[in-house]
Design brief:
Distance between the termini: 58 Å
Radius of gyration: 22 Å
Order of helices and strands: HHHHHHHHHHHHHHHHHH
Number of strands: 0
Low-confidence stretches: none
Shape: globular
Strand content: under 5%
Oligomer: single chain
Helix content: over 70%
Structural class: mainly alpha
């Protein structure tokens, strides 16, 4: 019993360290600022696609055999590879990795050294990332083990101060559909996508600790996941609540990084900003190295070694360097539609794998995934400037669309169609077998 409890803590804290990125801290406060007195719904929606989905992704991977490919292979092996590449590009060079550099500049460097060029920060930051990526060692791990607790303690101090001594009254901001806004804002952390990729690492750690059976892995995954996601959830929930105190102090148009720095200044003063800036710089840096290594390893694996790790990682960092210089706000605007397009696919895949014993065959997976993807295409194209407003307006008439869940009904229709196809194929196969047997 003592060993099991210790293993839960070790694996849970490891999962927390992997999922908890400083770059994600910019989203909850801005969400709270927009929602005001609807902050409770904000926590519910944000938790659904961040904390809840992350935990379900790890459980689904354990049920499917411990790998990400096992989640998506039931649609088709090629689809599995395609979705894996999309997720790696998202948590790597197209979003999460460059965002660490942009956040480092806007939340870490500018509060301490105003006027420093974004390009100078990026050259130094990503240059150091490349150096550590091509010269792997234990330094980054050691820094991460020190910085993660310091960052967490600082955040807890901010949250406690914000709860015990509110900056201002929480007011009505007049926001509509608070849950739906929070649901899609949870996409931006990419924790749900990252969890699907990181799940095999957690399961491998459990196997190394002696948990060989799928049943024991699932049980330990749930316990460890609840611990990790519980801590992350408390931090995100606290930051949403503090952000909700800000409508009378900050403009709703304020950029996310500027808002976070402003909140820290209000609650902890200049010393708090210094401490937070240093923690954010180091936490973003350790996260960046980890993401670059993950991308390098992934492309080496799927290419069977034809794409060497070293060059994969370097190219990933170079691409991130240029995207980072667009700034946090531009990165979020660019990535938002892409996340809205692929997140429903990941959500339905995770849910179907959890209930896999009730799914009659692969066509059910294919139909649900296809319709969940298809219904999000119009909104994505409009967001990138393609003029099909009429089609998007039609999609917005679907049930639950006001809460950004327009993909739910098409997915359910795909479920019914897929089940009918799978059952029909099974019946035809059975009849053919009977005829041959006679």
């Amino acid at each position: 019993m003592i060993k099991k409890a210790k293993d839960i803590w070790v694996v849970g804290l490891a999962l927390f360290a992997m999922m908890f990125g400083a770059g994600n801290l910019i989203f909850p406060p801005k969400l709270g600022l927009l929602l005001g007195d609807e902050w409770g719904l904000g926590i519910a929606g944000f938790f659904t696609t961040d904390v809840g989905l992350s935990l379900l992704a790890i459980i689904a991977a354990a049920l499917a055999g411990g790998s990400f490919n096992a989640l998506a292979d039931k649609v088709h092996p090629w689809f599995s590879k395609f979705l894996g590449v999309v997720i790696i590009l998202t948590v790597g060079p197209l979003l999460a990795l460059p965002r660490t550099g942009a956040v480092t500049h806007e939340m870490g460097i500018l509060p301490l050294l105003p006027g420093v060029s974004h390009w100078i920060t990026s050259i130094v930051y990503f240059g150091l990332v490349i150096w550590f990526v091509v010269n792997p060692g234990t330094v980054i791990d050691k820094i991460g083990k020190i910085l993660t607790p310091v960052l967490l303690i600082t955040l807890i101090s901010i949250i406690i101060k914000g709860i015990s001594s509110p900056m201002s009254d929480i007011i009505d901001t007049g926001i509509d559909h608070a849950y739906g806004l929070s649901f899609t804002e949870g996409y931006q952390t990419v924790d749900g996508l990252a969890a699907a990729i990181f799940a095999p690492i957690i399961i491998s750690a459990l196997v190394a600790k002696g948990y060989k059976s799928t049943k024991s892995q699932i049980k330990m995954t749930i316990y460890s996941g609840i611990l990790a996601m519980g801590v992350i959830g408390l931090v995100y929930g606290g930051l949403i609540y503090i952000g909700a105190q800000g409508p009378s102090l900050f403009s709703p148009d304020i950029e996310r990084t500027e808002l976070f720095v402003g909140l820290v200044g209000q609650l902890l003063g200049p010393i708090g900003i210094w401490i937070m800036s240093v923690c954010v710089i180091m936490a973003c840096f350790t996260t960046a190295v980890g993401l670059a290594v993950t991308a390098g390893d992934y492309f080496q694996d799927i290419s069977n070694g034809k794409l060497p790790y070293k060059w994969n990682a370097i190219i990933t960092v170079v691409i991130s360097f240029f995207i980072a210089n667009l700034g946090v706000n531009s990165i979020v605007k660019f990535s938002g539609p892409m996340l809205t397009l692929f997140y429903p696919v990941v959500i339905v895949l995770i849910l179907m794998n959890i209930f896999d014993k009730l799914i009659p065959g692969n066509w059910t997976y294919r139909c649900v995934v296809f319709l969940a993807f298809l219904v999000e295409v119009p909104s994505t194209l409009v967001s990138y400037g393609v003029n099909i407003e009429g089609m998007r307006d039609w999609v917005n008439t679907f049930p639950f669309a006001e809460n950004k869940l327009e993909w739910v009904m098409p997915s359910l229709i795909g479920l019914v169609i897929g089940i009918i196809i799978d059952l029909s194929l099974k019946m035809n196969t059975k009849k053919k077998f009977q005829i041959v047997s006679q």
